[in-house]
Amino acid sequence: MAWVYLVIAGLLEIAWAIGLKYTQGFTKLVPSITTIVCVILSFSLLSLSLRTLPVGTAYAVWTGIGAIGTAVLGIVLFREPATLGRMMCISLIVAGVVGLRFVSSH
């Protein structure tokens, strides 16, 4: 169950990172509230996953999911550049996240 909590926490990290863009410096009420709720839920689920997962593994996977998702959505939603170098670096993060999942003993 810890891995489920961790993946959901990572998806919520993507939501709050993207949400930050829509808050416009926390001047927009609804995006600001949504972003804050996602932050709280993301940290709460990360904390639950840490009951059984090693902190280094869980934190790396959590930030990796967030980094991958935020980078991809930045390309899709905000037309950020999808250069070969950028895509290769995102692929390395994916490999690291998947690798950590398979080498973790939990």
TrEMBL record:
TM spans (from-to): 33-50, 57-78, 84-103
GO cellular component: plasma membrane
Subcellular location: Cell membrane
Keywords: Cell membrane, Membrane, Transmembrane, Transmembrane helix, Transport
The organism's place on the tree of life at top rank: Bacteria
Membrane-protein topology: Multi-pass membrane protein
GO molecular function: transmembrane transporter activity
Keyword presence, Transport: yes
InterPro entries with a match to the protein in the record: EmrE-like, Small_drug/metabolite_transptr, Small_multidrug_res
Main location: membrane
Family: Belongs to the drug/metabolite transporter (DMT) superfamily. Small multidrug resistance (SMR) (TC 2.A.7.1) family.
NCBIfam families: PRK11431.1 (NF008512)
Name of the protein described by the UniProt record: Quaternary ammonium compound efflux SMR transporter SugE
Name of the encoding gene: sugE
